[in-house]
Predict the 3D structure of the following.
Amino acid sequence: MLCLNCGTEMTNNRVSTAHDQIAYDMCEHCGSLWLDAGELDKMAFRVKGSIEASTQEPMAEPETDLKRCPRCDNAHLYRVRFLEVTDIVLRRCRSCHGFWLDGGQLDLLDKELKADMPVRGRGFADFVHNVHVPYWFQRVQRKSSELEARREAPPLPGALRVGAADAVCPACGLPLAAYRAFGVDFEGCPACKGVFLFPDELRRLKDKVEDGEVRWLNEEIDNLEKASAIETKRLCPRCKDVRLIAAILGKSSIAMDWCPRCHGIWLDQEEFAEMVEYLKREMGALRPEEMRARALQELKAVWSGGAEGRLEELLDAKATLGVLINATILQHPALAAICLGAPRL
């Protein structure tokens, strides 16, 4: 593993404590760190609960600034906010969920945790830099290349490869594979990480992420074929002789390719996650009266059975009402104080 900042080969450290083993890769030149999923929590063994919660930083990031995950075969690192609300911006892989920390960021995490938790004893920086050693009794150091373990990143986080597919990727021309995520079977490209989904599969996958928060936002997907579109040079993986049509999703800048014959949808790498982020922003921009109208619309769909069936429409209505209730609470400080358990003045 080479440092993403200076190109130096990283050193793998495996530290044995009385109760666990912690592993991390460190650049001895600039101090950058790579932590696999769960290792940040292991280092914070004096902090209750997980500290790996993070939200994607909404700032647009220039393409030249993107870094590739040092652990996965073809996945990017994205800017995330440490503990979801702090000003500390780290980089994280959506596939393996590992963290990349630039030199000096470990000290920032120390200060943040000591201010918020607080943390007893010394912090991460002393632990990693071998200043404060009572917590561990052995550390084995090796060049990262001796333990290199590359992982095949699935096209969607949490997806499992279940077999081959009788189709080729419309983006790179390599064979597609069959995947399964959240009980939904679909085809994806192991190389470029694109996915091919039919509209109902896309809706079902979208309904499962973010705790179902955006499951009731279906209009943009349903209206995709009505949007302004242009024919591409890509061929549909299922129909093989039909060119895909590129259309913009709603008011976003996301171009999604769809087949005019079988209505399948091709999403390039990370476009599914970008779609979910866009829907979350659209939901947050709705005014309370719009939310009430959408909630009423979903309740009517439950009664009629809707396009997705009564159970799915009921779950959509539940999600809509949850968002409406949260928005109403935030609009009324006194009600928010009661719900949050704060004393009223």
